[in-house]
Specification:
This protein is mostly beta strands. The protein has 3 helices and 11 strands, in the order αββββββαββαβββ. Strand 9 and strand 10 form a beta hairpin.
Length: about 220
């Protein structure tokens, strides 16, 4: 999977994660909403996004508040690029636990558990989780990643869906350090926060679309 364009993802994306067979014993971290889906977040990476942006609608701000304070939720995230896709489904439990299954077409699913900086992979034969060779550089809290959305610009609203643009700095806070340029985001809210988050961004030079559905 090292050369698979769908799995050469950033190591710092804060909303979703995926692994591939290790190169030099490392894990590669992949976005996917998520929050999801959901990568490592440093103490200041996304709690205070780019300043100077116009105020976002109250409904969108409230949804961000709810997602940041959520104790748990489940998610299904899909990332599509270069005509291929990766799906990640799992659960988040505050403050820093994610259990997820990564599905790549033509490959066996990979089950992963992340608790703070501890990462383990499920052995499909024995069913036991084994510590991965390599860990995130810091602990993570997926709730913090939603803060990048507060920097939304040129927000338009259609019913419960808010469409807006993130500048390059906030895009990197959302999608990781390999993201370049701005991101186009569509966030659909409900009574509990977000029901869906979708964004289009260029990651490692490849146009990519990420969609994350949330369930509580």
């Amino acid at each position: 999977m090292v050369t698979d364009p769908m799995v050469r993802m950033t190591e710092s994306s804060p909303l979703a994660q995926v692994s591939r067979p290790a190169r030099a014993g490392r894990l590669t971290w992949f976005l996917i909403l998520l929050l999801t889906v959901m990568g490592p977040v440093s103490a200041c990476s996304s709690s205070n996004p780019t300043s100077g942006s116009a105020a976002i609608p109250t409904e969108l701000s409230s949804a961000i508040d709810q997602m940041q304070s959520a104790e748990s939720y489940s998610f299904v995230a899909t990332m599509t690029t270069a005509g291929a896709s990766i799906t990640v489904d799992g659960t988040f439990s505050a403050p820093n636990t994610v259990e997820q299954t990564i599905r790549v077409p033509g490959r066996a699913p990979v089950e992963m558990r992340l608790i703070g900086t501890e990462v383990s992979i499920r052995n499909p034969v024995s069913g036991t989780f084994t510590a991965a060779t390599g860990t995130p550089p810091s602990t993570f809290d997926l709730r913090r990643a939603f803060g990048a959305l507060r920097a939304g610009q040129s927000v338009s609203t259609n019913g419960t869906t808010h469409t807006f643009t993130l500048d390059p700095e906030s895009t990197r806070a959302l999608a990781g350090s390999d993201a370049t340029g701005s991101a186009r985001v569509m966030a659909t809210t409900d009574a509990q926060g977000f029901s869906r988050l979708e964004y289009r961004v260029t990651i490692d030079g490849r146009p990519s679309t990420v969609g994350i559905d949330y369930h509580r």
